[in-house]
Specification:
- The protein has 545 residues and is mainly beta.
- It has two domains: 445 residues, Methylamine Dehydrogenase, Chain H (7 Propeller); 49 residues, ligand-binding face of the semaphorins, domain 2, CATH 3.30.1680.
- Helices cover 7% and strands 39% of the residues.
- It is built from six helices and 39 strands.
- It is globular and about 75 Å long.
- It starts with 6 loop residues before the first strand and ends in an 11-residue tail after the last strand.
- Bound molecules: 2-acetamido-2-deoxy-beta-D-glucopyranose (8 copies).
- One 2-acetamido-2-deoxy-beta-D-glucopyranose binds next to loops.
- This is Semaphorin-5B.
- GO terms for molecular function: chemorepellent activity; semaphorin receptor binding.
- Pfam families: PSI, Sema.
- One of its GO terms (biological process) is semaphorin-plexin signaling pathway.
Length: 545
């Protein structure tokens, strides 16, 4: 697997690319410049070498460790898996409480009678959110979604049960997302029906009126796969991919950021019980060139609030050659697209055209900060009904992706900011479909761009499986990883495992440096003195024979 060029040989009428040469490094075409194939094999840490650093949890018969919630006040980790909720000690993931949460026999039977399999007719936890003293949980419950409010310190204690429809998917495979705001409103993006044809962005609970996206309107949402949701300032932002409605050249999927105002009250007469502030914009993650190569399909995101950056994993379509990329977006670039013109189609037979934004810098109708006496700018309902697709595309932080990887579909990522000797580094932890984590440098510096620091094998030899959930724990500098049949916790760094100066420096790990006084490989915190602590992050580390 190496850095490769995409050979573009022909251009079909609608600008669809025909990719002829996917991976030049694998095929070793002699005509290719050697520089294009210069990526060396990265260090790989075997499961055996990782074992002493790893804490592991599994429970007989339990699968799908896909939801994680951290309760820092009790030092506990709450885990949602198939038919179970677990409370674990955060320090060593040992079991504190196991709560079975399976569908009852009648619900299972009715699920199977509708043609679903035994496997599908289980309860897959898909929403697990801590909100103050309560834990909000939803599960697919054999295609009969249900939600329960529980006590954070005792997950078995159910305080309330509500319908899970429009909060949790029916089908465990469906891609949904949900979040509770600071004020207690639940925002969910999922499907509202058994067959999965009616997508919705829905607000409920809390003190605001329930609102949804326009029903059966493919211009709002068109076969979407929801990825994530964040509360940022006055808005709630959703990340998703969907079939592009503005592209009349065959079926193509675009990645999107959508947003609504948290103070949206819905319309009157027009857009009743419906968002009046819904807007969406396309995200661009591509390799530049005369004809850019697009990674159109967003798979997961990570929000770094300290820097207002959104990192995303993008892939090609499953029906084409598999390739992944990581792009990062500045929130200011997202805002810029939302402040720009809209794209609007007068009627289904006409083209989508750019039209000016009636309220650039729309702030949800709240008073502009710092301008007393400023005016309340509400969106008109007529505008809300026709203007929601932005004309401008959100461009990433760097022209080319921070990382590209052929022949692999990456799944989840988290990002840490690390203080090195010379500078701050962003380190990405990326989950693969093989049960490994790629620890990767994220930088715009060409000589270090996309360096794999190491690949960590979390599963024993002979086992593979996708990473289902990832959570970074800054409090004790570790990573919690949910897989299909287990949950593991690993430290972010293993500096003390490098026995010599050469090993320490050649790891090129920004967490680690050689302490000249102590003659040990340490973290910056463990160093005796900054002047005695050396690093040499000048190139990507290479695998030792
Ligand atoms: C795990 O940590 C808890 C406290 O955090 C402790 O009580 C328990 O003994 C530890 N278990 C193991 C197996 O180390
Ligand atoms: C947790 O809640 C359950 C159900 O309400 C109750 O039976 C149990 O005693 C509680 N456990 C603790 C430790 O409070
Ligand atoms: C959800 O997303 C995953 C990963 O992109 C994909 O493989 C899967 O097919 C999606 N689920 C559904 C029901 O389409
Ligand atoms: C996406 O970014 C590439 C690289 O900068 C650029 O060439 C292309 O025009 C952009 N595409 C869109 C739709 O903005
Ligand atoms: C994001 O944009 C803001 C405003 O344009 C800028 O000040 C900031 O440096 C940008 N962040 C990064 C990481 O480039
Ligand atoms: C508020 O709106 C009124 C009428 O549209 C206008 O005359 C006034 O200048 C506006 N005030 C501010 C501070 O923008
Ligand atoms: C740092 O690494 C480079 C190779 O990238 C090497 O040439 C150089 O000698 C190293 N410096 C130290 C102090 O180890
Ligand atoms: C990129 O990294 C190399 C190696 O550490 C360094 O020599 C160079 O100055 C860096 N370039 C920039 C633009 O920071």
């Amino acid at each position: 697997m190496g850095e490769s060029g995409w050979g573009v040989r022909s251009l079909s009428p609608c600008g669809l690319l025909l990719v002829v040469c996917a991976s030049v490094c694998l095929s070793q075409q002699p005509s290719m410049k050697p520089a294009e194939c210069s990526r060396k094999e990265h260090p790989v840490v075997s499961h055996q070498a990782l074992r002493p650093w790893m804490f592991e949890f599994s429970h007989p018969g339990v699968k799908d460790y896909s939801q994680l919630a951290v309760d820092l006040s009790r030092n506990q980790l709450i885990v949602g898996a198939r038919n179970f909720l677990f409370t674990l000690s955060l320090s060593n993931v040992s079991l504190i409480q196991a709560t079975e949460w399976a569908p009852d026999e009648d619900t299972k039977r009715s699920c199977q009678s509708k043609g679903k399999s035994e496997e599908e007719c289980q309860n897959y936890v898909r929403v697990l959110l801590i909100s103050g003293m309560t834990l909000f949980t939803c599960g697919t419950n054999a295609f009969t979604p249900v939600c329960m409010t529980r006590q954070v310190g005792n997950v078995s204690a159910v305080l309330d049960t509500v319908n899970g429809v429009a909060r949790c998917p029916y089908d465990p495979r469906h891609n949904s997302t949900a979040m509770v705001t600071e004020r207690g409103e639940l925002y969910a993006a999922t499907v509202i029906d058994f067959s999965g044809r009616d997508p919705v962005i829905y607000r409920s609970l809390g003190n605001m009126p329930p609102l949804r996206s326009a029903q059966y309107n493919s211009k709002w949402l068109n076969e979407p796969h929801f990825v994530s949701v964040y509360e940022i300032g006055r808005f709630t932002y959703f990340f998703l991919r969907e079939t592009a409605v503005e592209n009349d050249c065959g079926k193509v999927v675009f990645s999107r950021v959508a947003r609504v105002c948290k103070n949206d009250m819905g319309g009157r007469f027009l857009l009743e019980d419906t968002w009046t502030t819904f807007m969406k914009a396309r995200l661009n993650c591509s390799r530049s060139g005369e004809i850019p190569f697009y990674y159109n399909e967003l798979q997961s995101t990570f929000y770094l609030p300290e820097q207002d950056l959104i990192y995303g994993i993008f892939t090609t379509n499953v029906n084409s050659i598999s390739a992944s990329a990581v792009c990062a977006f500045n929130l200011s670039a997202v805002t810029q697209a939302f402040n720009g013109p809209f794209r609007y189609q007068e009627n289904p037979r006409t083209a989508w055209l750019s039209t000016p934004n009636p309220i650039p810098n729309f702030q949800c109708g709240t008073l502009e900060e710092g301008s007393p006496g400023g005016n309340l700018t509400e969106r008109s309902l007529q505008d809300a009904q026709r203007l929601y697709l932005m004309n401008d595309v959100v461009q990433p932080l760097t022209v080319n992706p921070l990382l590209t990887q052929d022949n692999l579909r990456l799944s989840k990522l988290v990002v840490d900011i690390v203080q090195g000797r010379e500078s701050l580094y962003h380190v990405m932890y990326i989950g693969t479909e093989y049960g490994t984590i790629l620890k990767t440098l994220s930088t715009s510096n060409k000589s270090l761009q996309g360096c794999y620091l190491e690949e960590l094998r979390l599963l024993p030899p002979g086992k593979i499986g996708p990473i289902k959930s990832l959570q970074i724990l800054h409090s004790d500098r570790s990573l919690i990883v949910g897989l299909d049949d287990r949950l593991v916790k690993i430290p972010l760094e293993r500096c003390s495992s490098y026995p010599s100066e050469v090993h320490c420096l050649e790891a090129r790990d920004p967490y680690c440096g050689w302490d000249l006084k102590q003659k040990r490989c340490t973290t910056i915190e463990g160093s005796s003195n900054m002047n005695q602590w050396t690093q040499n992050i000048t190139q990507c580390p290479v695998r030792k024979p």
